[in-house]
From TrEMBL:
Top-rank lineage group of the source organism: Eukaryota
Entries under InterPro entries matching the protein: JmjC_dom, JMJD6_ArgDemeth/LysHydrox
One GO MF term attached to the UniProt entry: 2-oxoglutarate-dependent dioxygenase activity
Gene3D superfamilies in the cross-refs: Cupin (2.60.120.650)
GO-annotated cellular components: cytoplasm; nucleus
UniProt source species: Quercus rubra (Northern red oak)
BP term (GO), one: positive regulation of translational termination
All residue ranges annotated as the JmjC domain in the record: 40-212
Protein name: JmjC domain-containing protein
Length: 401
């Protein structure tokens, strides 16, 4: 069904007022819900809205504006380009449409802004998520307003729900790992983004590791007859979760380099009171510490990504126009968050020149093939930067922060 067909159906049935928010049909007609419409990606020149400042530190969509999530041709399908192109959506639903109980993709943050209409949200904190799962923690409650079987879901009645109503022009923020069910109390149009950054990156890795172990368990019986068992596990992980270890490691490696580019530029520009503010330095340090921690965790399970042919040449990456665009996008984000002036497009190459001028590549080397390589690269870069300016807050100083 096209968007225009959906709107025609919606208008045809919107005059009927006895649609119940707890039922799926109105007068015999289905209550349809348009979800996950990639409006920004389909109409990039329209600029219908800007992301609120609180939510602009968005690594996920910044990355997908420049790169594909999947590098493996067996995973990426050309005809599926729009469906995995970004995580910025428009939702349109009549009164009575709803979204079943779920936690967000990648265990990302999300925000939802009501353009018009009214929604009811039911939230469950991460500490209680086990209460809506069966005894084996394999399946969860679909609709919390159903007659939920106590035998199948023995902890359900103990769950404590946060219940709130979202009005027109209001925004709801959903933290990582919070299960929620949403009902449209009126005809509603909303804007919804999923995103993650250095502050919730560990949620993404924990989900990937859990889903990887499940994917491996499901096909364990064919390990001995499978030519590439690990590759099959990774393809299944990408299909089920939206990315695999390989995709994720490429993602964090690019953001490691991009954050180091910002840090090196900060170091060069340290006489500028805006750029050298402690908030900027601390933000960069927290990002690098988060990326370092994830690389250590990947390495601790054997560095799966590195064993499947991953190779990144740092020098080539720094010369890549796509990576330069990623750096400029990240720099703009810092500019908005920390109220600093952004650079002009014609000077963007200067950003990466600061990294190369500090001899970080010469002293380490220009290749990253494994998670262990990434850990060593970050350690080496931080050692060089701290030797030049000890006032910059470094990741190693933030343990336990």
């Amino acid at each position: 069904m096209s968007v225009s067909q959906f709107v025609d159906h919606w208008l045809e049935n919107s005059v009927q007022e006895h649609c119940s928010a707890s039922k799926d049909h109105s007068n015999g007609h289905p209550v349809l819900y348009l979800k996950d419409w990639h409006f920004v990606k389909e109409y990039p020149e329209y600029l219908a809205y800007t992301t609120p400042l609180f939510f602009c530190d968005d690594w996920l969509n910044l990355y997908l504006d420049n790169y594909r999530m999947h590098k493996d041709p067996d995973t990426y399908q050309e005809n599926n380009e729009i469906s995995c192109s970004d995580y910025r959506f428009v939702y349109m639903g009549a009164k009575g449409s709803w979204t079943p109980l779920h936690a967000d993709v990648f265990r990302s943050y999300s925000w939802s802004a009501n353009v018009c209409g009214k929604k009811r949200w039911l939230f469950l904190s991460p500490s209680q998520h086990n209460l809506v799962f069966d005894r084996n923690m394999k399946s969860s409650v679909y609709n919390i307003f159903d007659d939920v079987s106590e035998k199948v879901f023995p902890g359900f009645t103990e769950a404590i729900w946060l219940d709130c109503t979202q009005e027109q022009n209001e925004i709801i923020f959903v933290p990582s790992g919070w299960y929620h069910q949403v009902h449209n109390l009126e005809d509603t149009i909303s804007i919804n983004h999923n995103w993650f950054n250095g502050y919730n990156l560990s949620w993404v890795w924990n989900l990937l590791l859990r889903d990887y172990n499940e994917a491996k368990e499901y096909i364990e019986d064919i390990r001995d007859i499978c030519d590439d068992f690990e590759g099959l596990c990774q393809r299944n992980l990408a299909a089920n979760t939206g990315m695999n270890f390989y995709d994720f490691f490429i993602f964090i490696t690019h953001f490691c380099l991009a954050n180091l580019v910002q840090l090196c530029h900060l170091l060069r520009d340290c006489k500028n009171p805006t750029w050298s503010s402690s908030t900027v330095a601390r933000h960069l340090a927290l990002n690098l510490r988060s990326l370092w921690n994830i690389a250590v965790k990947i390495n601790s399970i054997g560095g799966v990504a590195g064993s499947h042919g991953f190779f990144l040449d740092i020098r080539e990456t720094l010369d890549d126009p796509t990576f330069l665009n990623l750096c400029v996008g990240l720099e703009r984000t810092f500019g908005m968050i920390h109220k600093k002036q952004s650079f002009c497009f014609d000077t963007k190459k200067d950003l990466v020149d600061d990294l190369t001028s500090l001899d970080i590549i010469r002293t380490y080397g220009s290749q990253i093939c494994t998670a262990k390589d990434l850990v060593r690269f970050i350690d080496n870069a931080i050692a060089i930067v701290s030797g030049i300016n000890s006032e910059i807050v470094l990741p190693s100083e933030l343990d336990g922060a």
